[in-house]
Amino acid sequence: MSVRRFISKQIKQTFPNNALHTYCKIQTLSNIRLLSSTTASNHKKRNVFRVLDGTISKTSAINNNNANFEKLSKLHEQFSKVASAGGGKKAIERHTIKQKKMLVTERLKHLLDDDADFLELSMFAGLQMEYGDIPRAGIITGIGKVHGKWCLVVANDATVKGGTVYPITLQKQLRAQEIAEQNHLPTVYVIESGGAFLPLQSQIFNDGGRTFYNEAVMSSQGIPQIAIVCGNCTAGGAYVPTMADEAVMIHKKGYIFLGGPPLVQAATGEIVTAEDLGGATLHCSVSGCTDYFAEDEAEALELGRDIIATLNITMNDNTTTISEEPLYDPGELPGLVNTDNQMDIYKVISRITDGSRFHEFKTKFGDTLVTGFAHVHGQLVGVVASNGELTEPAADKGAHFVQMCGERSIPLVFLQNTDGEDSTVTNGLKNGDKLRAQAKLMSVVSTSPVPKITFIVGNGVGPVSYIMGGKAVSPHFLFCWPNAMIGLTEPQVVAQEICASKESLSTEDQAKIYEKCNKESTAFYGASRMWNDGIVLPQDTRQVLRQCLSITRAYRPIQPVQAPVIRM
């Protein structure tokens, strides 16, 4: 018997009928799967970007830094407690027991999918103002999800001064609308307001109408404007629901009128009830100012959710991104900050980015500005971080990098810690070259078409603060760490110049000037006056950045860039 016939006979005995064909098929599939698995495994091992060295030793300096930061954390806790207390115990009891209304925080729980995912903005606004404490400026603003869609919410807290609008209230609402417009966020107004605080009307009236302008402009841009009237909606505030795309009103709780019953009686002598003058029955069935009639607050807020469900908007999908925790603990960030706000910025970055990975751009050129790419919760970002004085090479590098991110539609994350400018340079050409480079970077940052998210992690002083994603260039979000110092220059320099300009100042007066300058440069002072969008503890930076990136991505159209990248 030939060898071929022998092998054929053996195979037939081993694999009767079609078993051989089946066996071969299984083996082929197994080999393909093995190859695919090996290939996928190889790809998985080849991570993007290099890992930063973020190791720190537990030295006395780190311990001192942690001890100093503990004081700031306690101050942050105190501010949070005052802000969360609203109008105080008596006002809360009157609102909930006598008027039988929900607190604003309870309303948000009914409106949002999960209030734990709510990014509150400007929580400390209104604290320690010249006219007293106005907790949360009398309104809660923030961004949360309704039926899975990011929405910006502006909700009055009627326990704070009866929902009266103060100048700081107006500033907070205007900033919220700016964020909504920048990020194309549907806006929900949960209204209960007594109108402007008349003793300060001169500081409110001129900019007050801007809220209505913003509402109309956003609606024209296809950004939905929804109003839920939960209480009084008086004077100028009456325009908010009337100008909204859709409005809900609560029976015998919500009222809309330019002037309430006391004003009508004073002007005409006519006695009229609030319900007859501007109740839900009138506006839903006669005037048509509102669209949905609700029996109670729970129904009104559910109707608000239903309206969001009808908007027919889709968010850019971000579910396929893979997130990786940093190799170094974000909880160690406070220990990196010394009392002079000096820190190793690479160790900061290593505690924020996925896998502590960072692809640095132009490492050896202009090294007082750190630029590069990283992922945060799976999303690619361009990082621009202070690392000393913004020199001419550093500014040139920054302009190149920011333009590149704009062309590639990559969001920018600024980690700002500016140094005071060197005023001792006497070389005119050197000064001019530096100024030119900084002006170029300012222009590029100002006109960049991508989202800008800024964290002032140390000092935000001088014109360079504007360039590094400061308030002047309208970042999509601007947050501060509790240690941040913000101002024209360092507070001690300001105090020295003020004291030098005055003759015969006593030691006590000089001390007061230094104290005032230091206080007005703190992150807390700035937060209370709406100079930032809130104070974030260092260890929470990555989490807040995750929310901001998700929000800025949600409805952002990709805008083609019509110009090339100019290298230097």
From TrEMBL:
GO terms for molecular function: methylcrotonoyl-CoA carboxylase activity. Its EC number is 6.4.1.4. The keyword tRNA-binding does not apply. PROSITE patterns: COA_CT_CTER, COA_CT_NTER. Pathway: Amino-acid degradation; L-leucine degradation; (S)-3-hydroxy-3-methylglutaryl-CoA from 3-isovaleryl-CoA: step 2/3. Residues 68-323 form the CoA carboxyltransferase N-terminal domain. One of its GO terms (biological process) is L-leucine catabolic process. It comes from the Eukaryota. It catalyses: 3-methylbut-2-enoyl-CoA + hydrogencarbonate + ATP = 3-methyl-(2E)-glutaconyl-CoA + ADP + phosphate + H(+). InterPro entries: AcCoA_carboxyl_beta, ClpP/crotonase-like_dom_sf, COA_CT_C, COA_CT_N, MCCB/AccD1-like. Residues 322-568 form the CoA carboxyltransferase C-terminal domain. The keyword Ligase applies. One of its GO terms (cellular component) is mitochondrion. Keywords: Ligase. SUPFAM superfamilies: ClpP/crotonase (SSF52096). This is methylcrotonoyl-CoA carboxylase. It comes from Mytilus galloprovincialis (Mediterranean mussel).
